[in-house]
Design goal:
With 601 residues, the chain is of the alpha+beta class. The protein has 14 helices and 31 strands. The protein folds into five domains: 179 residues, 3-Layer(aba) Sandwich (Rossmann fold), CATH 3.40.50; 85 residues, Translation factors (Elongation Factor Tu (Ef-tu), domain 3, Beta Barrel), CATH 2.40.30.10; 71 residues, 2-Layer Sandwich (Alpha-Beta Plaits); 108 residues, Alpha-Beta Plaits (2-Layer Sandwich); 109 residues, Elongation factor 4, C-terminal domain (Alpha-Beta Plaits), CATH 3.30.70. Strand 5, helix 5 and strand 6 form a beta-alpha-beta unit.
């Protein structure tokens, strides 16, 4: 067991793509905790999706030893965190289990919006912040500019900033020494009752739930009986250990340690991220504060492609929820798609990641409906309801007014792209509230805009018009009045509830026409014409037609009277009319996905 004064717990935070995972790689490589044969880039990114997209989705805890210049052998527990705004909840949980934070600033791009957000998160938890200037090897690197921004924009001391190149390994030795000197040791006592925070979990099909904990006081070892203070359930500990890229068993976990517990837990509902673990025989006085309750901003329904797979999908959702605490879900059903789940996500990227994880990790074939946000609707009866599902939208005659969620968007961009970004924000119904030049080359613009407008292609288009240099961060600021309508999509006169959308009235025509056009490409042709219509109530606002497959009934008529040909055509016409009455149009899975595609796609 390492003395608590020789333990350092810290996390690595930064804006997206500033080199957090690469820096984590260098720390692991320098500590020589794994054989060089097994080394690869992005060691802390375990999922295929993370490597393919080049982003971190899950925070990953790692324990490494370090012998400092003072001769002491330290134990460094660090967490590599995501940078994307959709995974801020992952970052907040990592921060709650640490005493320090490495805040990375890109030497070529400087301080960006998520850098500020993550710094404020760390300050809320009274963490010691160590600024690190990364990518000093780039030709465009400007270390003096980065130091000025650390002083001016962040209000931190740039003299303690450590310049490094995570790619080349430059400055890593100096960073190790700064971690040991700057970050405080944990303060908990081993003699006190056990007090441990669950900051993450994952499911092992052989051993049950593996709980990731930070021990604040006391100790826990195999054979102890532990109690979850939230659910009041008790389990016997089978194994304790630490993370060195994989689970390494240890004799015990004591105050200051970060590690895992296996206790044969098969009931997933008993474990909640943010709960406090204590000893059943000698419990602590009160639970730890835990984490803020997550508030989803994007809602979509998930259905199994085969309705017989509903139970399997429910088990998969349970296991995914264990590993992704920001996912919320409840049961849902649709006339078109059967039973499924209504899910809440922190953003559109979060939705995409959940879809991919269900398909890859749990082998589930699923259909997602078009994403929506939460609307607040005042009825004529005086009642106010929250509606995020088009299926629950009341009749127009019952509605007094509607409100939609607004965000305050902070965009930091080089000045040459400012015009394009302003045009994009105005197109998305944004209202500019502030603009300030951070220095000669960079400007920050603040816009207030509807969250619904940011859902679809906003982030992609922002990156396109700024050539990837603009950074984007947002906060919810409340609800504001809107002119809301429900757009129904009808196939041959029948409304398909899974394709309905709640949209701003001014965008309803464009949205309906776009969906109809996409569906026309996806629906296979039948022996009869298929009408695809977009409607608001009884008013049709868009229409596309899938033309019939036409069998040439006149092929055998190589001559003769015209009446014979007419008779055959009339007979065919009657048959098609009958077929249309009894014919049901099959919508392929791609038809539901097509609705999510943007016009640029």
């Amino acid at each position: 067991m390492t003395d608590s004064h020789l333990i350092r717990n810290f996390c690595i935070v930064a804006h997206i793509d500033h080199g957090k995972s690469t820096l984590a790689d260098r720390l692991i490589e320098k500590a020589k905790v794994i054989d060089e044969r097994f080394y690869h880039a992005q060691m802390t990114d375990n999922m295929d999706i993370e490597r393919e997209r080049g982003i971190t989705i899950k925070s990953q805890a790692v324990t490494i030893p370090y012998t400092a210049k003072d001769g002491n052998k330290y134990l460094l527990n660090f967490v590599d965190t995501p940078g994307h705004v959709d995974f801020t909840y992952e970052v907040s949980r990592a921060i709650a289990s640490c005493e320090g934070a490495i805040l990375i600033v890109d030497a070529s791009q400087g301080v960006e919006s998520q850098t500020l957000s993550n710094m404020y998160l760390a300050l809320e938890h009274d963490l010691e912040i160590l600024p690190v200037i990364n990518k000093i090897d780039l030709p465009a690197a400007d270390i003096e500019m980065a130091k000025r921004q650390i002083d001016h924009d962040l209000g931190l001391d740039s003299d303690i900033a450590v310049p490094v190149s995570a790619k080349l390994g430059t400055g890593i030795d100096e960073l190790f020494e700064a971690i040991v000197e700057r970050f405080p040791p944990p303060v908990g006592k081993v003699e006190d009752p056990l007090e441990a925070l669950i900051f993450d979990c994952h499911y092992d099909s052989y051993r049950g739930v593996v709980i990731h904990i930070r021990v604040f006081s006391g100790r826990v070892k195999p054979g102890d009986t532990i109690r979850f203070m939230n659910t009041e359930t008790e389990y016997k500990v089978e194994e304790t250990g630490i993370f060195i890229l994989k689970l390494i068993p240890s004799a015990e976990l004591a105050a200051g340690d970060v590690g895992y517990i296996i206790a044969g837990i098969k009931t997933i509902q008993d474990v909640r991220v943010g709960d406090t673990i204590t000893n059943a025989d000698r419990p602590c006085a009160k639970p730890l504060p835990g984490f803020k309750e997550v508030k989803p901003v994007v809602f979509s329904s998930i259905y199994p492609v085969d309705t017989n797979d509903y139970e399997e999908l429910r088990d998969a959702m349970d296991k995914l929820k264990l590993n992704d605490a920001s996912l919320t879900w409840e049961k849902d059903s649709s006339m078109a798609l059967g039973h499924g789940f209504r899910c809440g996500f922190l953003g559109l990227l979060h939705l995409e990641v959940v879809q991919e994880r269900l398909e890859r990790e749990f082998d589930q074939s699923v259909i997602f409906t078009a994403p929506s946000v939460e609307y607040r609707i005042a009825l004529r009866t005086g009642e106010t309801i929250i509606c995020d599902n088009p299926a629950d939208y009341p009749d127009e005659g019952k509605i007094e007014s509607a409100e939609e969620p607004y965000i305050r968007a902070s965009i930091i961009t080089p000045t040459e792209y400012l015009g394009n970004i302003i045009s994009l924000c105005v197109e998305k119904r944004g209202v500019q509230t502030n603009m300030q030049y951070l220095d000669q080359k960079r400007v920050e613009v603040i816009y207030e805009m509807p969250l619904a407008e940011v859902l679809f292609e906003f982030y992609d288009r922002l990156k396109s018009v700024s050539r990837g240099y603009a950074s984007f961060d947002y906060d919810l600021i409340g609800f504001r009045p809107t002119d809301l309508v429900k757009v129904d999509i009808m196939i041959n006169g029948k409304a398909v509830d899974a394709l309905a959308q709640l949209v701003f009235k001014g965008n309803a025509y464009d949205k309906a026409r776009h969906v109809c056009e996409q569906l026309r490409e996806e629906i296979t042709r039948q022996q009869f014409k298929i009408a695809i219509q977009g409607a608001i109530g009884s008013q049709i606002i868009a229409r596309e037609t899938v033309n019939a497959l036409r069998k040439d009934v006149l092929a055998k008529c190589y001559g003769g009277d015209i009446t014979r040909k007419r008779k055959l055509l009339e007979k065919q016409k009657e048959g098609k009319k009958r077929m249309k009455m009894v014919g049901d149009v099959e919508l392929p899975q791609s038809a539901f996905l097509a609705v999510l595609k943007t016009k640029e796609n």
